[in-house]
Write a structure and sequence with these properties.
7 helices
Amino acid sequence: MAEQIHYRPAEAKQYRQDTLAEFERLEGRLAEINGLLDELYDSGLIRWLKDFAGAFPQISHIAVESMNTPQGHAGMRNLLVVAQQLGKIDPDQLERTFASINAGMTEAAKPARDDTPYNPPGVTGVFKLLHDKELWATLSPLIAGAKAYGQARRQAGDEQPDKRDDAE
C-alpha cells in the first residue's frame, strides 16, 4: 500500500499578515490572564473562592436560617430603611458631614491642656462663652439640627398612634 505524501507548498506554511497580528494580540492577552491567575493564586484568593464555592450550600443554609428569625426580619427591614434614607442624602453633603464628625472626634480625643482658656470656666468664663462668636457659629448648626430632629419626631408621633396608649 502506498504511503501518504506529506507535502505542502511553501506558501501554505506562512500565515497571512492579519492572522499574525491577531495571534500577537491573543498571546498578549493570554500572558495577562496567566499573570492575573498567578497573582490570584499566590494571594490565596483562588483557594478561598474554591473553598467558599464548595461550602456554599452550608453557608446559604446558615444564612437562610438566621434570616428566618424575628431579629433577621427586623435587621433586613432596618437595612432597607437605612438604604432608603441614604438615597435621599446628597453624597457630597454626607461626605462633608462625616469629615466634620471625624475632625470633631479627633479634636475631642485630644487630652485637655492646662492653658485652655475655658478650663474650668467658672461664672465669668461662662459669661465669656455666651459672647464667643466662634462657639455660637459652631453650636448653631447643632442646635438647628436638634430642633429639626425634635420637630420631625413630633410630626412622626402625630402621624402614628402612641404605643403607650395601646399598652394601657
